[in-house]
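sorry for the late reply, my laptop died twice this morning and i had to redo everyting from scratch. anyway the thing you sent over, i finally got around to it. pasting the sequence first so we're on the same page, its 100 residues, then the predicted structure underneath. double check i copied it right bc i was rushing
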Amino acid sequence: MTQRALYVELHAQPGKEEELAAFLAGAKPLVDAEPATPVWFGVRFDKATFAIFDAFDDEAGRDAHLNGQVAAALMAHAGELLAAPPQIRRADVLADKVPA
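ok and here's the structure:
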């Protein structure tokens, strides 16, 4: 069962909304290469509001993801893509339903 999660809210710079959307879509292969990240979503709420939601079996998996390629790439492009720093929220998973 997944035990840990992250919710990262992202607000695009004006005029950079589609670039942020493309960044999230393009991040999937990087996440696919992370064996300790079994659940990952890049989502869009409205024109400029996006988020990443992911879940992990343990704290080590969550830490590995936070120190992985997606986080590094996001921080490297944060100044040009984001209107504000990412809001990273750590969560404990109380229940889940994910494919085996």
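Helices lie at 17-26, 28-32, 59-66, 69-81.
thats about all i looked at so far, will dig more tmrw
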